Amino acid sequence: MIALFLRDLKLSVRAGGGALIGVLFFMTVVAVIPFGVGPDLNLLSRIGPAILWIGALLACLLGLDRLFQAEREDGSLDVMLMQETPLVLSVLVKCLAHWTASGLPLVIASPLLGLFMNMNEVAIGATMLTLLVGTPAITFIGAVGAAVAVALPRGGLLVSILVLPLAIPVLIFGVSAAYAAVEDPAPFLPPFLILIAITLFFAVIGPLAAAAALRSSSD
Amino acid sequence: MPVKLHVEDLAARRGEDLIFQHISLVLQAGEGLVVTGANGSGKSTFLRVLSGLLPVDAGRVRLEGAGSDNLAESSHYLGHRNAMKRELTVSENLVFWQDFMGDSPGGRGLPVEVAIDALGLSGIGHLPFGYLSAGQQRRMAMARLLVAFRPVWLLDEPTAALDASADRMFAGLVRGHLEQGGIVVAATHQPLGIDGVRELRMTGFAGVFAEAGY
């Protein structure tokens, strides 16, 4: 299993892996917002956490469609389906590797982009923490979409459309927890704990559903 | 305990179409089976059903004497695609499959360098897989059969894109596997050049088959 994790990490940083594409997209989205909104610093710092979250959500969805498609195209998926190792476990490890390669860089880049949005230290810290906890859920949800669309030649957009509705709760609780840390009356812990619960829930449901979809898609 | 593969009254469909039916055979340890037939006669479907990648429509497939009676877990499947990553080097690919697949009970896989040497491609293990020619890629895909031990090999057109010497080398690999008490089922257009291998001739949609000495 460690072999699979390391292989997927290696693949995502080698040519054509696309680990950095997500970060670049994230930076592009967030960097153009101040130009569009205008130089209103108060407004920017107020919408900052939400913009960071939306940018991270979209960036997370970018590379997801290749998660299983690349394996299917070169025949590796057939070999994985045949192994004694439960497919659910292989899918979980692939999700973790995908998140480490493309989700974790977003979390690391978020403080820098928070400065673009004139956010204070508390808001930056809270957004980073909620992204750290929340982005794995997006990967697990996305794995289901990627598995369903694995046989479709242009599944990329379809994956995003399938996945977005399910990822909305992650966005809502992520943003509300980030805001709660800044604005006094709202409590930080309840939305943050729900966010953790969502991630744990999809860490179980996602690989199960994705494995079932992969099994039924083999032809 | 020697392995024994039972195929009982097997039938498979693709969508609504019946591809084959009433295939029954028993392969003992050390026996090979060559599946022949025209394009589209169901050779690949037969192999994919054996490897569990397509559902069985009727009948069943059973393996005795291996760690589990699930044939898929005790087999290597070498399909049309090589199951290797173009971005990784040849050694990285093989080391990954060795770690990921592990060995079935009753045997051990060869070390990666030894497997590369056995395929006659010494000295290019450090190259990315995508740099190799089609024939070299096919040979490296065969090295996967050696690095992790599986008693049953299911090979779909294994020698496509190979030159004559590679054909002979591959026949040697198959012979070696049979001598160790393995089972080989290969779909092919060219004769494999191995004596004492049985033949299953697929005749297409009629679903009738004939088994004959090779």
Automatic annotation (TrEMBL), chain A:
Keywords: Cell inner membrane, Cell membrane, Cytochrome c-type biogenesis, Membrane, Transmembrane, Transmembrane helix, Transport. It is found in: Cell inner membrane. One of its GO terms (molecular function) is heme transmembrane transporter activity. Its main location: membrane. One of its GO terms (biological process) is cytochrome c biosynthetic process. It holds the Pfam family CcmB. The chain crosses the membrane at residues 12-37, 43-64, 85-108, 128-150, 157-182, 188-214. Required for the export of heme to the periplasm for the biogenesis of c-type cytochromes. Belongs to the CcmB/CycW/HelB family. This is Heme exporter protein B. It comes from Pararhizobium antarcticum. The lineage of its organism: Bacteria, Pseudomonadati, Pseudomonadota, Alphaproteobacteria, Hyphomicrobiales.
